[in-house]
Design brief:
Beta-Lactamase, 5-stranded antiparallel β-sheet, rod-shaped, alpha+beta, 20 strands, Heat Shock Protein 90, about 50% helix
Length: about 600
């Protein structure tokens, strides 16, 4: 048992390690693929931000180029009397208002300022030492950025020369634009983007908290202008540089670092793209694979557990089979003996039942003997009389009269033969199997057998075989079925002994099920649920009229034919017995 537990534990550990290894591999691969897509999108966003910045700066550059040769400015530069700066020059003020420029400054080539757009802020004393001014004096476009000392704001400068008729630079127009105004159009949008100048300082960014941060000269990342540098770590993943940092709530804690040179504005554009989505995608892929492996492992574990349980069950079963083989052999032997005894008992029971049925028939015959004797005695006396009369008619040579007597003697003999035939058929012990029986003929024979008894007790029996759709074939035995109706008729006759009106009605119904209705005008049934119980009778104890077996025998006979018999009280008085029988198929009858 301990060996099996150690074996299972080892398999489980190996499986978990395998799942972790596969999930880790899927995570690394999925993370790399997601980083590739993220890098492409980040590069596109960075290029879009850089293009937006350069496009906005170019507007001010074009403004300086277009206004540098304006006639009013040229006239101002050619006027020797202009020696002081004109604040709020109408042309420059209008251009600053329309373009949101911080200031426009027009100065001679020697640096003397002739006009400015600002009215409230004093112009600088001279521009001669400004790098952008020096560049413009060389006949080229001068560009520079710094924190403007007059406004205390980050500013971008574009200086454009104005040429005299001799082709020399006579004046310079400088456009000063506010960097914060440029940032305001895209601040907070997209990934974190910042622009580092040639002094390794962040001068422009869509995240204001990164402005004036400086590039670390010895390692990746940025350093704040003052204070302790926050936590930072750079590492490579799938060929991409990942920065893990804590620079503020609006900057991702883990981002993909992307760099793009911008020689047009002499800066380097950099972006930090949040990689949390890529990590989630990779985590979902790894989790899905791990879940699939775990499900597969659980199925495999279930299969192995089932095999183990089946093996143990088979071993236990074999052990039990071995232990019980001898007991089963002894039990089988005992069962064989018991089966033999039961078969013998069943044969004895069937014989007893057959004897009981036969006894019931003989009992019925005994009850009908007086009437039958009278029925047979009448034809015999009539035959004797007709025979004596026939002899006398022959002596008197009256052959026609003698023939009539002989015909009546033949009719009496036929009647006696029919009575004796029915008695013999009723009395014999039938052993034939169930077959096709004409129900109308069986009821007619039962009526003929009981007719002497009915005549003796002055009982009217209403049965009309001619009114039936004869023949009606049912499944049963002719003798046994006849005994059922004889029992029902004699029981009805017994029940009406003390009744003033004595009548028995027999009819056949074919729908909804084939059944025979036997009704009498007796006192009815006291206990309909007990009348078919053996030895149940309403007759006096010790009576010679029966022991209460007739209806019980009838019930068993009808059940053996696949039918049913039930007794009830008729609403108009008397008892009603319904004998349901199974119809013989029409095809078989044909």
């Amino acid at each position: 048992m301990r060996t099996w537990i150690r074996h299972r534990a080892a398999i489980l550990i190996i499986f978990l390690l395998t799942v972790l290894a596969v999930a880790g591999g899927v995570w690394r691969y999925g993370y790399g693929q997601a980083l590739d897509q993220l890098a492409r999108r980040g590069e596109a966003d960075l290029a879009l931000g850089a293009d937006s910045l350069t496009a906005q700066l170019k507007r001010y550059q074009e403004l300086a180029v277009l206004m540098a040769e304006h006639p009013s400015l040229l006239a101002l530069s050619q006027n020797p009397a202009a020696t002081s700066a004109e604040r709020g020059h109408p042309l420059l003020l209008e251009a600053a208002d329309k373009t949101a420029a911080l200031d426009l400054i027009y100065a001679r080539a020697d640096g003397t300022i002739l006009a400015t757009a600002q009215e409230d802020v004093a112009p600088p004393t001279t521009l001669a030492q400004s790098p952008y001014f020096k560049r413009a004096l060389q006949g080229a476009l001068g560009a520079h950025h710094q924190v403007d000392p007059r406004f205390g704001r980050r500013a971008f400068y574009y200086a454009v020369p104005s040429f005299s008729a001799e082709g020399t630079v006579s004046a310079v127009l400088t456009v000063v634009l506010d960097v914060e105004d440029v940032e305001g159009n895209w601040r907070g949008d997209g990934p974190t983007v910042f622009f580092v100048d040639d002094l390794n300082e962040v001068f422009i960014s869509n995240r204001s908290e990164l402005v004036f941060w400086r590039r670390n000269p010895t390692a990746p990342g940025l350093l704040p202008p003052e204070g302790t540098a926050p936590a930072f770590r750079a590492y490579s993943r799938a060929g991409h540089e990942i920065w893990q940092l804590d620079w503020g709530p609006y900057i991702p804690a883990r981002g993909l670092h992307i760099v793009q040179d911008l020689p047009v504005i002499d800066m380097v554009a950099e972006a930090i793209v949040d990689v949390s989505l890529a990590r989630r995608i990779a985590g979902l892929q790894a989790g899905t694979i791990a879940a699939i492996f775990m499900i597969f492992g659980l199925i495999l574990l279930q299969v192995l557990e089932r095999r183990r349980v089946l093996t143990e069950a088979n071993a236990e079963l074999e052990n039990r089979v071995t232990q019980r083989t001898q007991a089963l052999s002894a039990t089988n032997e005992a069962l064989r003996r018991e089966i033999t005894e039961r078969e013998e008992a069943e044969a004895a029971l069937k014989k007893a039942q057959a004897d009981l049925v036969q006894a019931g028939k003989l009992s019925a015959l005994g009850q009908m003997s007086a009437g039958i004797s009278h029925e047979l005695n009448q034809p015999l006396m009539a035959i004797q009389t007709f025979a004596e009369n026939g002899t006398r008619f022959l002596e008197r040579d009256k052959a026609d009269k003698a023939g009539e007597n002989l015909s009546r003697i033949s009719q009496m003999a036929t009647r006696m033969a029919r009575i004796i035939k029915n008695l013999r058929a009723f009395a014999r012990n039938e052993n034939e199997p169930t077959g096709r029986v004409d129900l109308v003929s069986v009821i007619t024979q039962a009526v003929e057998l009981t007719e002497p008894r009915l005549l003796q007790d002055d009982i009217t029996l209403n049965w009309s075989p001619e009114a039936q759709n004869s023949p009606i074939f049912v499944r049963g035995g002719e003798v046994r079925l006849g005994q059922v109706f004889v029992n029902l008729i004699t029981n009805a006759a017994d029940a009406m002994t003390d009744q003033p009106a004595r009548q028995i009605d027999i009819s056949i119904q074919t729908a909804p099920r084939l059944c025979v209705l036997v009704r009498d005008t007796g006192p009815g049934i006291d206990a309909p649920d007990k009348i078919f119980d053996p030895f149940y009778t309403t007759k006096e104890v010790g009576s010679s009229e029966g022991m209460g077996l007739g209806l019980s025998i009838s019930y068993g006979l009808v059940q053996s034919f696949g039918g049913n018999i039930r007794g009830s009280n008729h609403p108009e008085g008397g008892a009603l017995f319904t004998v349901e029988l199974e119809s013989w198929p029409q095809e078989s009858a044909a």
